[in-house]
Amino acid sequence: MSENSKPGVWEGFKSFLMRGNVIDLAVAVVIGAAFTNIVNAVVKGIINPVVGAFGTQDLDNYSYCLESPCNPARGGEEAEGIQIMWGTVLSAALTFLITAAVVYFLMVLPMSRYLSRLAARREAKYGTPEVPVSELDVLKDIRDELVAARIARGESAPNGPAAPGATAGPPPEGPGTPEGPAGGQGPTKR
């Protein structure tokens, strides 16, 4: 292959960027980053005040001390004791649950309903949609055709008895057999 026929680095990079998956991923990252601000605002403006009615608005302050005295590090001091910060874990778990709920109820559920309505309209407009054929069904059809062809030639079916009226013997002569390419007319000279 010559040097000129290979695609250049720039052309390869452009084709990589123009793939649908890369663009979809970039859009998802940008939307996800913007969506994080919404979720953080919901947690800070709604969830934390509700939790604050029972304690503090900042869940990060909730902790448990395994070994006394528990004094968190301030300034340049070292922390004393062993402190389990379960409030931080609870805050992250609530943020995750809120994010998952908002994504599901505001994005996934409406989109799936829209797509099902769209499929119903297409079915009503164009009739019954084609049933997708699986790879296994295609392979079964090929197998059945091969068995039918063997039976028609008089060979026995694989893993089964011979077809009625068929004799079990050598395969018929034809192209590719040792008798020759012309269907049993003898070997040809090369």
TrEMBL record:
<feature type="compositionally biased region" description="Gly residues">
    <location>
        <begin position="181"/>
        <end position="190"/>
    </location>
</feature>
<dbReference type="InterPro" id="IPR037673">
    <property type="entry name" value="MSC/AndL"/>
</dbReference>
<keyword id="KW-0406">Ion transport</keyword>
<keyword id="KW-0813">Transport</keyword>
<keyword id="KW-0812">Transmembrane</keyword>
<dbReference type="InterPro" id="IPR001185">
    <property type="entry name" value="MS_channel"/>
</dbReference>
<feature type="region of interest" description="Disordered">
    <location>
        <begin position="151"/>
        <end position="190"/>
    </location>
</feature>
<feature type="transmembrane region" description="Helical">
    <location>
        <begin position="21"/>
        <end position="43"/>
    </location>
</feature>
<keyword id="KW-0407">Ion channel</keyword>
<dbReference type="InterPro" id="IPR036019">
    <property type="entry name" value="MscL_channel"/>
</dbReference>
<comment type="subunit">
    <text>Homopentamer.</text>
</comment>
<dbReference type="InterPro" id="IPR019823">
    <property type="entry name" value="Mechanosensitive_channel_CS"/>
</dbReference>
<dbReference type="Pfam" id="PF01741">
    <property type="entry name" value="MscL"/>
</dbReference>
<feature type="transmembrane region" description="Helical">
    <location>
        <begin position="84"/>
        <end position="109"/>
    </location>
</feature>
<comment type="function">
    <text>Channel that opens in response to stretch forces in the membrane lipid bilayer. May participate in the regulation of osmotic pressure changes within the cell.</text>
</comment>
<keyword id="KW-1003">Cell membrane</keyword>
<protein>
    <recommendedName>
        <fullName>Large-conductance mechanosensitive channel</fullName>
    </recommendedName>
</protein>
<feature type="compositionally biased region" description="Low complexity">
    <location>
        <begin position="154"/>
        <end position="168"/>
    </location>
</feature>
<comment type="similarity">
    <text>Belongs to the MscL family.</text>
</comment>
<keyword id="KW-1133">Transmembrane helix</keyword>
<dbReference type="GO" id="GO:0005886">
    <property type="term" value="C:plasma membrane"/>
</dbReference>
<keyword id="KW-0472">Membrane</keyword>
<dbReference type="GO" id="GO:0008381">
    <property type="term" value="F:mechanosensitive monoatomic ion channel activity"/>
</dbReference>
